């Protein structure tokens, strides 16, 4: 479906981002992955993309919290791939605390990576997409881009900002062959969420699986986690011709979380 396309996925050395990269590669797209982690593990994943799917795969590191670095990363990715057709803005971090106790440095870091990096990456990619009159920008927002939860002020603010930026990007580029949409996942059993489950298990004296069910029951009516692979398949759809007239939307994949 995506053979010959060139895709960049930020925050893609593990978890949701890696699953998205693998699904895009499975459909034939050449890939640039990005993120932090053990160098050998990252190289294994990069090489695995090439071996498993017969595509070209590159790893480019960058501190996306810095505006110049975020824009330079896109330029470097374009040079490596020979262009850019698909940009998936996925990189993000989280911190939990009441507003009055929220560390300023954590607020600044979350806004920088979860929101500003999306802006800078999009701004750097758009000129290339406009020249070829084709582009798919996919922003990984969150259910927290649509609704709020306590103690997540920076994350909720950033993800609401991503949803707003998605709509503006879509409007500014409508009719130019470029779409921009946001995927809004609910609970995904990432390493970050696994830490929350483990903490709840310890705090309440529950088994890990009982703690996971309790976590889901608070927000997600399906009582099932969204899988990274499901998010990857959604990104493939948004990159396809079937979604050519789908722009400025939020795709909720949240087990009913935001239907309440």
Write the layout of secondary structure elements.
Blueprint: E1 6-9, H1 15-26, E2 30-33, H2 39-53, E3 57-59, H3 67-81, E4 86-89, H4 104-132, E5 135-140, H5 153-172, E6 178-185, H6 191-204, H7 208-219, H8 228-239, E7 250-253
Parallel strand pairs: 1-2, 1-4, 2-3, 4-5, 5-6, 6-7
Helix pairs in contact: 1-2, 1-8, 3-4, 4-5, 6-7
3D structure, described in words:
This protein has a 7-stranded parallel sheet, with helices on both faces. The protein is built from 8 helices and 7 strands. The protein has 2 domains: 207 residues, NAD(P)-binding Rossmann-like Domain (Rossmann fold, 3-Layer(aba) Sandwich), CATH 3.40.50.720; 39 residues, no CATH class.
State the gist of this model.
By secondary structure, the chain is α/β, with parallel strands linked by helices. The protein is 50% helix and 13% strand. The protein is built from eight helices and seven strands, in the order E-H-E-H-E-H-E-H-E-H-E-H-H-H-E.
Please name the defining characteristics of this protein:
260 residues, alpha/beta, Rossmann fold, 2 domains, seven-stranded parallel sheet, 7 strands, 13% strand
* % residues in beta strands: 5-15%
Identify low-pLDDT runs.
Answer: none
Order of helices and strands: EHEHEHEHEHEHHHE
Q: Kindly report the CATH topology of the largest domain.
A: Rossmann fold
What spatial form do the alpha-carbon principal axes imply?
globular
Number of helices: 8
Q: How would a crystallographer describe the biggest sheet?
A: 7 strands, parallel
Q: Which CATH class of the largest domain is shown? A: Alpha Beta
Structural class: alpha/beta
Task: Give the CATH superfamily of the largest domain.
Answer: NAD(P)-binding Rossmann-like Domain
Mean pLDDT: 97
Largest beta sheet: what is the strand line-up? Answer: 3-2-1-4-5-6-7
Number of domains: 2
Q: What would CATH call the architecture of the largest domain?
A: 3-Layer(aba) Sandwich
Helical content class: 40-55%
Tell me the distance between the termini.
35 Å
Number of strands: 7
CA-based gyration radius: 18 Å
